[in-house]
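Predict structure. Chain length: 199.
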Amino acid sequence: MTTALIPQLFLAPVAAVQRVLDQFGQQGVIIGGIAVSILGKPRTTADVDAVVIASVDDLSHLMMVAQQEGLSPRVENAEEFARRRRVLLLRHDASGITVDISLGVLPFEIETVERSQLVQTGELQIRLPTPEDLIIQKAVAHRPMDLDDIRTIIVRQPKLDWQRIEYWISQFAEVLEMPELWTNIADLRKQAKPRKRRK
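Prediction complete.
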């Protein structure tokens, strides 16, 4: 797979997050703008996002590992906040880049990690979701930026498993009572024409 390089400023924080995932048995993936830049089209981002399959009982260990890798809490009572919101708010000490590590527990999140892939980008090897699972995550977030990200992934990745994408987005659409989650993505699929790869 051809990948885009991660911006220089983000190399150290991304590497630190990946080392945290390594210490949790690779039970996590890097998502958000970093993943979109590699699987879709390079774009600016303000932070590093990841999901790790962990319970609130793992939080103390997760925080300890993160701090060993130069990732410190950026809010007071970060562990208590993470217990309530299931997201650990950190900052990479050396660069000041913010890092959000979500605690995954949903069947889709577990599947995402099981299906994840190690991708070489520059000198780094990082664990990313499949393009399909990144589209699903972005569809649920459903901000204008997320829809733009989905469009770039569709264009970059011509061989998507649309059966999986439709299944999971439809599941979330039903639970959230937001049918537009799928209808908007179906429209994007029609509009976005994947580039033909040169032989």
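Summary: The chain has two domains: 1-129, 130-191.
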